[in-house]
TrEMBL record, chains A, B:
Name listed for the protein in its UniProt record: LacI family transcriptional regulator
Gene3D superfamilies noted in UniProt: 3.40.50.2300, lambda repressor-like DNA-binding domains
SUPFAM superfamilies xrefs: lambda repressor-like DNA-binding domains, Periplasmic binding protein-like I
Keywords annotated in UniProt: DNA-binding, Transcription, Transcription regulation
GO molecular function, one term: transcription cis-regulatory region binding
Keyword DNA-binding: yes
Domain called HTH cro/C1-type: residue spans: 7-50
Domain HTH lacI-type as annotated: residue spans: 6-60
InterPro entries: Cro/C1-type_HTH, HTH_LacI, LacI/GalR-like_sensor, Lambda_DNA-bd_dom_sf, Peripla_BP_I
Highest taxon above the source species: Bacteria
Naturally occurring in which organism (per UniProt): Pseudoduganella lutea
DNA sequence: CTGAAAGCGCTAACAG
DNA sequence: CTGTTAGCGCTTTCAG
């Protein structure tokens, strides 16, 4: 099974030319006499030679590869981003190397460090504290970050979470809801923005907000927090969740506790993951345009790599998606 | 922004030792006098030196990195596999580089080719025709393949799809269903096995099967095929889908056409994706133990890389998950 | 204990 | 058109 992988030297020898010639031929850097080209092509063909990208990268400093690091490949929001990024990268001849960091946040730095040296640029979705963000710049690679940064030192792509949450809340207020709850995930950088949007809107209408905090942005946590929220004295009549996953979990648990959605409580999520379509009732949500975020981030990265000028900050506008999980109380 | 990344030579010079010493120190290959070690550590620290993994890999031939190629990161079945594989890899100090091939099957070979030279081994989920499988072996890398192979030339991990489908069908027959339909996805290697399981069971009970074929293993296709299946003369009373995604789509479409599930038709999927829990009714399915498959594949790969002996073939047993989308007709 | 030197596989001037 | 000659940044004998 140990086929000796041929090197450029083997090929050169077999074809009776120099390694430089092979190199130039492979990369199309230069043309040669038909006789030589034919010979080279033939030898390469029968030896099954492929240039070693590592050696190639080491000298050119280019890998035609970009890294994309996400928090959880299991979350549809992130996989949509991946889809978008992938499409753009492929169109430009780049390969995307995906890394899932959530399994072990402690290893994130090591992971990114390792990845950064193997790619031409990085797109990062991270929960890293701002202090460590400095460190990212030290990687000395073109880099695009997801989310709003306090001091915008890195090129970023972000959704307008505050606005999305505000819009959703505004809608629910208009529908006549009075007792609001927000199921958040405070470990996320964006939780604050979303909760802020909800609060700001409620404040403007003189309404209160009860906040619940999940340990993970998952359906399971949504289920877990449900009984706490619904079985106290006077449950809320409108719930905005940090994301759709949590909303899905909540709805299931609420329904199995005997509550009707949206009759007893309106539920809304954020992300517009595709599975929100398949629940009963289907989930009202805020579309953050995940895929478009992936596209924008990859375009920005590729521009940076190519030395093209780019906007340092792209904000993607949210959009309300109204479905059956919210009702009119007027 | 252009920090000159320090090389081993810079460090050696600054520390007043040779590059060889630095190299050995970094890799812990050898110990040195406390004085020297302290000096080196200090210099490395303040220069922020990190060895270049490319150069390192080029010479050692090891990357401490493995590639995992999946058909669609958007499909929960695959992301579960990723989770499992990731966990094992990290536990062994390996980094997983994930690649999504479905966007462009035509580019799959190029993608794998590129990836293979950058990693110590590969785990591949592919729709590649058997003829091209040969080519994979030619990559000359430790490699684990998902699915049953005709001529088992590669180490593989597979679910027992035939058995799972048989079990599910058996259960539906026992429940008293008479008119069976199978919604397949013939482009997949596993479709045949699943359909075979269904057919074999039905044949044993003298029952017929109507087959529908989807263009993609997606919820959207499930929705699309629904009207065709349900609005003809005499619709089926039991449907087994190639996967849960298709089942989800079908259920939604059927319900919006006014059918009740499972009263009018029992629906079952395969994969046991988490979202099957959040539909109404929740989806009956066959758990293929995706995550366990990822674990098994990664263990097998790591064993191969380390030169440890391994079973060439691992079969993961399926398990029936009974939920509300199937009913008793007796 | 420490260093000199020979490359890994490939590209990039620079000659011819 | 084609070849020579330096390395890229690092590891690894092999001496000292």
């Amino acid at each position: 099974m140990k086929k000796n992988i041929p090197t450029i030297r083997d090929v050169a020898a077999a074809a009776g030319v120099s390694t430089a010639t092979i190199s130039k031929f492979i990369n199309g850097t230069q043309r040669f006499s038909p006789a030589v080209e034919a010979r080279i092509a033939e030898v390469i063909g029968q030896m099954g030679y492929r240039s070693n990208p590592l050696a190639q990268s080491m000298i050119t400093g280019k890998t035609k590869t970009v890294g994309l690091s996400v928090l959880d490949v299991t979350n549809p929001h992130f996989t949509s981003i991946v889809k978008g990024a992938n499409r753009v990268a492929q169109a430009h001849g780049y390969t995307v190397l995906l890394v899932d960091t959530e399994e072990n946040p402690g290893r994130e730095q090591a992971l990114l460090e390792a990845l950064s040296r193997r790619v031409d640029g990085l797109i990062i979705f991270s929960r890293m504290p701002d202090s460590e963000l400095e460190w990212l710049a030290g990687l000395d690679k073109p880099l695009v970050f997801f989310g709003r940064l306090p001091r915008m030192t890195l090129p970023t792509v972000a959704s307008d979470d505050h606005r999305g949450a505000y819009m959703m809340t505004r809608h629910l207020v208009t529908l006549g809801h009075k007792r609001f709850a927000y199921m958040g995930f405070s470990k996320s950088r964006r939780d604050e923005e979303r909760m802020g949007g909800v609060k700001e809107c409620l404040a403007a209408h003189g309404l209160e907000l009860t906040v619940y905090d999940a340990a993970a942005p998952s359906a399971q946590e949504g289920e877990r927090l449900c009984s706490e929220m619904m079985l106290g004295a006077g449950h809320p009549d409108a719930l905005v969740c940090y994301n759709d996953l949590m909303a899905l979990g909540f709805m299931k648990a609420a329904q199995s506790l005997g509550f009707r959605i949206p009759a007893d409580i309106s539920v809304a999520g954020v992300d517009n993951i595709v599975y929100g379509n398949y629940t009963s009732p289907p989930l009202t949500t805020v579309d953050l345009h995940s895929e478009r975020m992936g596209v924008a981030a990859m375009e920005k990265l590729l521009d940076t790599i190519a030395g093209r000028p780019t906007e340092p900050f792209t904000l993607i506008e949210p959009q309300l998606i109204l479905r059956g999980s919210t009702a009119n109380r007027n």
